[in-house]
Amino acid sequence: MLTPPPRLTSLLFTPGSRPERFEKAAASGADGIIIDWEDAVPASDKDHVRAEVIAWLSERGRVGTPPFVTAVRINSLRNAHGLADLDALNAVALLLDVVVLPKVESAAEVHQALRKLRGEVRLVCLVETVLGVRHAAEIAAAAPQVAALAFGGFDLSAETGGEPTWDALLWPRTHVVHACAAAGVLALDQPCIALDDSAALTAECERVRALGFAGKLAVHPRQCAVIQTAFQPDAEQVARAKRIVAAVEQAQGNVAVVDGQMIDVPMFRSAQRVLQRAGGGGAS
User: Class assignment of domain 10-231?
Assistant: First the structure.
């Protein structure tokens, strides 16, 4: 049986070509680092960067200390660079917490990755193409190792020729959230590219949290604290969730009432999710 999935509220992309930034990421307030071998590395440098990162991780074991997550975004498995990434990770038996698969379009890609990866590695599958959105449900449910789907609206918009606006991306975002909910995995939102606008980042977090997203990817260390705060339930929400969980447990199968309101199963589950986001699952 797999261990419980790690906390993934905020994951910070860091170029694989910048190992001097790896340890700094662990101090950013993020839940983990995504060492990027895909978009952040030119094709001409991919072999060199891959070898350097593997040497760095082989020597140190990981970035930071648990529960900080060490992840690598490999290249798409539909090209030679991605296959080489997978073979390299398999050859050195590098035990990562998470491997991020870009532009996933089928459950077959999930299975392909898992045949090569070792240990209890989790997968975050980026859904950022038309086919990826279409097959989001099967990707989310492909294997127990899938911890999350991450929505990528910029690549999707580039493919469709649309604009990456809120309204234009609302349907695919919602579709990804529903696929994740059905499979019982997390939904993560794309990075905010307004690096110096914390208000814009907070607004994005609040809107996607309302849809059901559990976290958001980051591309700059200063974004991580904003993301963590935006996805953290406030004191009133936590207090009510604790009352709901306590009342249901005390009712032992009978009707539970909190603040004059009858509590049904969906409300109980929502309360449990609030407490999980807050860092505790109990009613105490």
Answer: alpha beta
**145 three-state secondary structure:** coil
Cα–Cα distance measured from residue 42 to residue 40, given in angstroms and rounded to the nearest whole number = 7
* β-strand pairing of 186-189 with 215-218: parallel
Read off the pTM: 0.90
CA distances to 37, 79, 259, 262 from 73, rounded to whole Å, are 6, 14, 46, 45
- Count CB-CB contacts under 10 A for residue 149: 28
The confidence score (pLDDT) of residue 283 equals 45
pLDDT given for residue 284 in this prediction? 37
Nearest to 83 by CA among 46, 136, 122: 46
Mean pLDDT by 10 residues, the chain (284 residues): 85 98 96 98 98 97 96 98 97 94 98 95 98 98 98 98 98 98 96 96 97 97 97 86 89 85 83 76 42
Compute the chain's Rg from CA coordinates: 19
H or E, element range at 238: helix 235-251
Pairing outcome for strands 261-263 and 256-258: antiparallel
CA dist 125 and 76 (Å) reads: 11
152 backbone φψ class: left, alpha, beta (φ>0; ψ -120 to 50): beta
CA 29 – CA 9 distance, rounded (Å): 10
The domain spans of the chain are 10-231, 235-278
pLDDT at 1: 67
